[in-house]
């Protein structure tokens, strides 16, 4: 009886937290601040590599801010955790709202701080909404910085966010944060997967915890054909991608291979 009572308490607290988050997001959207809009650039630089007898699909992933406002996160240091406060700015750069959205997580392989639940990587079979292949549905953390502009040159002097230590992180309007395919974490395991048509699907802000203009445009995908040679070695060929406007940067045409 006692365990059932505790179970209901836990469920109730979870519902209260969820409703509180929804209220904060709605309030931020209704104020006079400028909101970011997070969209995934078409995944690029797909490559199959053999790592310790595992068949690893590596790829570059970029998250663009196509909104009018910064995606801006401030660390708030607590005794046992560093939480992330999203700041909403107006046209003059004043803070008009701030909401606790996530946490900072130290990434030992990258040796710097990431923000939690930034993206979701998946391999799906047959269509972008088809069944997930194996265990290839992975939520990942990122350090958020201005890496390159969607359109035009990307001078360092114009970057607002460039620090992966315990400081402000974010993406300015018109900029992209990209993780290159050679970076630890930019991979999914497709060992032993059958020949066929597959989709590498990437979604920014998959849980909708970060405040933005539109959460329905966060996904992009790349279609590829997987074949196997007579000895069983896999090969991939990119055969398509999600709809995008060439010249906008969202097709990955400006994505640096570095």
Account of the 3D structure:
By secondary structure, this protein is mostly beta strands. Strands 4, 5, 6, 7, 8, 10, 13, 14 and 15 form a nine-stranded antiparallel β-sheet that branches. It contains one helix and 15 strands. A hairpin with a 6-residue loop joins strand 7 and strand 8. The longest helix has 29 residues, at 2-30. It has a single domain (31-241), classed as Immunoglobulin-like (Sandwich), CATH 2.60.40.10.
Question: What are its keywords?
Answer:
258 residues; mainly beta; Immunoglobulin-like; 9-stranded antiparallel β-sheet; 6-stranded antiparallel β-sheet; 11% helix; globular; disordered N terminus
Compact overview of the structure:
The protein is mainly beta.
Query: Main sheet?
Result: 9 strands, antiparallel
Number of helices: 1
Radius of gyration: 20 Å
Q: Indicate the structural class.
A: mainly beta
What is the CATH superfamily classification?
Immunoglobulins
Write the layout of secondary structure elements.
Layout: H1 2-30, E1 38-40, E2 44-51, E3 54-65, E4 71-77, E5 82-89, E6 95-107, E7 112-125, E8 132-142, E9 148-149, E10 169-171, E11 175-179, E12 187-189, E13 196-204, E14 219-228, E15 234-241
Antiparallel strand pairs: 1-3, 2-3, 3-11, 3-12, 4-5, 4-10, 5-6, 6-7, 7-8, 7-13, 9-11, 13-14, 14-15
